[in-house]
Each structure stands twice: as structure tokens, then as C-alpha cells.
Write a structure and sequence with these properties.
There is one protein chain. The chain starts with 11 loop residues before the first helix and ends in an 8-residue tail after the last helix. It has one domain: Up-down Bundle (Vanadium-containing Chloroperoxidase, domain 1), CATH 1.20.144. Helices cover 63% and strands 0% of the residues.
Length: 271
Amino acid sequence: MAPASDTGAVSLRLWLAPLLLLMLAAPLWMHWWEPQMFIRINGWSRFVPAPVWTGLSLLGNGWGVLVVTAPLLLLAPRQMWAWLCAAPFAAVFARLGKGFIVSPRPAAEIDNTQIHIVGDVLRTVSMPSGHTTTAFAVATALVLSLPPAQRRRAGWLVGLALATGLSRIAVGAHWPGDVAVGMALGWWSGLLGNRVLAYVPQAWSDSSHWALRCVAVLVAAAVFVLCTDALDFAENQPLQWVLAALAACVLVLFVVRSVCDRSGPGSTPGA
């Protein structure tokens, strides 16, 4: 099957950049510069209120990303599909790493009185940072889904993903090396998702199409989860309620648009 659309050429250097990142970050993921670097970054993070870091970590949780990106259902469905295409690759990379690499978390290696820990004390399956992998997969996929001329203006998304990775060190959950590897894996996930997006039919961005309606159901499930469960941190519960309320409003508008598009002139059932 031929690609449904051209999502923009992706140069070879974008595929090689994560490999360069892994090479440059070798002293981190080989733990040559740890735990000193972790203790230093974790210590500096205390000058920023904990809710800031826990809120940023929410951007690396799949449920959190669904509600944060809910407006894309109305404003840019193609971009919604972009990160959804990348997410499975991020999940596989993160699970494989945690399944095959035995890497204790900072709390298992360092006296806990020396570090700042927010939330549960985690001690196992450290490599890579799943939150960072997810955040970079989403950011990379969203940037690449835009026309080449507009990608620079969306660079702030990568900065936000980097802040999400930093938050994992700030809350005491991951080593800097875990974050660096998560960045590289997320980057590759976004690139792979961009290739898959090329085969997603344009019709799937129609609010009356069953595929986008399924995405809306997934967002509704995320709203329910955010309203009933504290994701990662109890400190995030108020933020979760606010995001869930906003996403619920988006869903109402989406339903209205979907019904109108379905019954409008020239509509074709089951397109």
C-alpha cells in the first residue's frame, strides 16, 4: 500500500543523531560519572517546587499525554495520529530495556538521606526512563508531522520533552544515563512513527470516521483514569482533574462535530 501522504522528508542525519547522543552519553549510561552527577542535578532541582517536576512527569505518562493532546482531535487530528503511531515503538523500547537490563535505580544505590525523592521510593528496573522515552517519542512525532518549514517553530516541544526527562532525575526516579538513553529511544520512536503515519489514510482525520472516534474513546478512558487515580504522584491529582475537565470539554465538542459531519450534506456512512 502506498503512503497516504508525504509527511516531509526526514534526512539521514536525523536517524543518526540519536546514535551520536548515545555515544556522547556513554559516560552516563556506563555510570562513570554517577552517582555524583545524579546527586548534583537532584540537589539543584530542590530550588524548583516539587509540583512542577511531578507535573512535567505527567507528560511522560501515556494517559497524561492523551488528555494533554486532546485538543488535537479538533484542531489537528493528523498530529494526534502522529504521536499515536510513535507511542507503540516507545512502549516496546522501554519494556525491552527494563526487561533485559539489570539496573537498580538511584534510591537502591545511594543513601536516601543524600537525595530528594518525590513520591514512591523506586529501586528496580531503571534503564531506560520510560517517561523520557514517551515524551521524546511524542515530541519528535509531532514536530516531524509538520511541514519542514514549520518544524523549527515547534522546537519548544523537544524542550518540553527534555524538561520531562530532567523531572525524572529531580524526583529521584532515574539516573542521568537512563534519561539520555530514553531521549535517544524516544527520538527513534518518533522517526519510526513518522514512517507509519505516512500510511495512515487522510480519511482517518475526519471526525465522522470510526478510526478517529476510537481515538476519542481512548481519550475518554484517559479522562476516567485521571479522575479516579493519581498517576505516579499524589501531588498531581489537582492538575489531573483540571486536565481531565478540559479534555472532557473537548470530547463534547468532538461529539457535536462528529454528529454534524455524519449527518451533513454529502456524508457517506462508514467511510
